[in-house]
Amino acid sequence: MKNILDPKIAIIALSSPLEVGAGRALQKASGLEAALKGKKCDVIQSAAVSTHQEAAAIGRKLAGLFPDMVVFLPVCWFEDYLVTDFIEECKAPLLLWALPGMETGSLCGSQQLGTLLKYLGHPFFHVFGELNNPEVVSEALKYFKAAALYSRLRRSRIGLYGSRVNGMTHTSPNEFMLKKTLGSRIVPVPSGKIIFIGDDLEVKKVWNSFKKRCGAVNVSYESGIESIRTYCALKKVVEENDLNALAVGCYPDLMGKVCIAASLLAEEGIPMACEGDVNGALGQLILTLLSGKPTMNTDFLEPVDANSIVFTHCGSSSLSLAEKKSDTSLNSVRLMRQGVCALFPAKPGKVTMLNLTPVENAYQCAMLSGEAMATEMVFPGNPARVKFGRPAKDVIDWTFQEGMGHHWMIAYGDYSEEIRAWAKLVQNNFIFKEM
C-alpha cells in the first residue's frame, strides 16, 4: 500500500524547576512513549524541557525531522514561553496533554498556554488524563491521525489524465486555492504517456487471477487483456510521477476502459477518480489514508426509501468491497457497451462520505456518515444503499442548499472525528460542513 498513515510524533515534557512534580519530566515522557507503543504511530523524539534555550534547541532539531504533531506533556505548571520559543523553530501542530495532580498545576499551565496559542493562531488540541487511560490514548491517536493527514495532503501529488467532463463544471479544480488551502499539487499527465504496455505473460496472469475473484465473466478475453494493459500503463504513470492519487477523464471515450485499473490500483493504496474529477480523487485520498483500505467513487443517485439513498458509479470499485463473490460479475460498461467493469452491490457496514468542491475563494469539504445496507443490483455498477439518521429528503435538501457536487467518495468505517480534527488544522480558505 502506497498511502500509509502512520503519524510521526515527538514528545516533550514541560516543567518549571520550582513546581511540584518537576522531577518526573523524563519519566513521564518515557511513560507516554511506552503507552503509545504498538499504536501505529512513530515516536521520533522524546525529551524534557525546562528552559528557553532547551526549547529553542529541540525545536530546531525537530524542524528537520518533520513531525506531524508534537505532544507537550506538562508535568507541572510551566512558563508558556517554553512553547512559544519552540514554535518559532518548529511549526508542527501541537497536542497539550495535561496530567491529573492537584498540586502540580499541569492542567492550569495547559489552559494558560491554550489561551496564548489560540490568539497566536497556532493549531493545537488538548487532552486531560493519565497516560495509561485507554479513552485518552484513543482520543490522542485520532488527533495524531488528523495531523498526519494534514501533513500528507500538503505533500500529495494528484495526477490528471485527460480533462474533467465537458458539462461537469463543479469538478474543475482551483489549482491556486487547492495548493494554498490543502497543499495538494496537480500533476498533468500528457495523453502520450498512456501506452498500453505490459509483459504478455504477466498481463495474462493478472487477468486470470482477477477473473477467478468474480462470480461471472461476461466479457471477451480481448477486452480483459486490454483492461489489464491499461492498468499496467496507469500504474507506470503513478510510479514515474510519484502520484498519491489519480483522476482520469474517462467519459465518454474511455468508459469501461479504465475501470479495472481503478479497481486494482485501489487495492494498492492508489485511489483513482472517474470523469477527470481531481476534487473527487482528493476526497478518495483522504479516506484511503484514514482507512488504509480501498474507497468508492460514487454518484449521488436516488432515495429508495424514507431514510436510504443509493450511491454508485459504473463499476470501478475494488472487489474487496463486494458482500459476496457470487454477486460479482465482469461486464461491459453501460451506455457505451465496451471495456470491462466489476459489477456488484456494495457490502453493508458503517461508512464515511466526503464531497470536495472549490467554491469562490475557498475549498469546501462536506461530510456525511451513515450505514451501508444490503442491496440488490439496482444500477449496473457498484450500488451502495446508505441509510442516514434522518430522512433522505433532508439530506437531498442539504446538498442543494449548501452547493455540493454530485460525486461522493465512500470509505467503510467511521472517521468523522479525525476529519473534524483535520478540518480545524486546515483553517484558512476552507469550509467544512457536515449533517
Descriptive overview:
The protein is 34% helix and 24% strand. By secondary structure, it is α/β, with parallel strands linked by helices. The chain folds into two domains: 8-154, Rossmann fold (3-Layer(aba) Sandwich), CATH 3.40.50; 157-434, Alpha-Beta Barrel (L-fucose Isomerase, Chain A, domain 3). The strands form four sheets. A six-stranded antiparallel beta barrel has the order 11-12-17-16-15-18. A five-stranded parallel β-sheet has the order 2-1-3-4-5, sandwiched between helices. α2 (52-63) packs parallel to α3 and α5 (134-154) packs across α12. The two termini are 31 Å apart. The mean pLDDT is 95.
Distance between termini?
31 Å
Total DSSP helices: 12
What's the gyration radius in Å?
Answer: 24 Å
CATH third-tier fold name of the largest domain = L-fucose Isomerase, Chain A, domain 3
Q: Helicity level, as a percent range?
A: 25-40%
Would you identify the regions where 5 or more consecutive residues have pLDDT less than 50? none
Mean pLDDT: 95
Main sheet record: 6 strands, antiparallel, barrel
Top-tier CATH class of the largest domain: Alpha Beta
Please identify, by name, the CATH architecture of the largest domain. Answer: Alpha-Beta Barrel
